[in-house]
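To: structure desk
From: M.T.
Subject: fold request, one chain
Message: Could you run this one when you get a chance? Sequence is below, nothing fancy, just the single chain.
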Amino acid sequence: MRFGAREVDRRHVPPGNEHAVRVASAVARTRHRYSPRARVGYELALPDLVAGALPTTRQAQAGKALVNKLTDDECDRVVSFAEVEELARGR
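Reply: Done. Structure tokens follow.
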């Protein structure tokens, strides 16, 4: 039920931001439970989510498509979405 709770969004953040923070935090805390691709996506998005941002569906899907092009080793090494884009380019 960890992800089923209803979160009250903070003021001045997009609806759904608190849920996204909860999910990304849970993935980051228990990284051994998730695939390298799931981990890197949530871990890279977490700082922006905490700051109050929330990607659109299109942005999230585009980010996931790029992350899916990485190898497991690359997922463990990247530290930014810019690096993900660079590694995924041309694949």
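Reply (cont.): The helical segments are 17-29, 36-50, 57-67, 72-77, 81-88. Let me know if you need anything else for the meeting.
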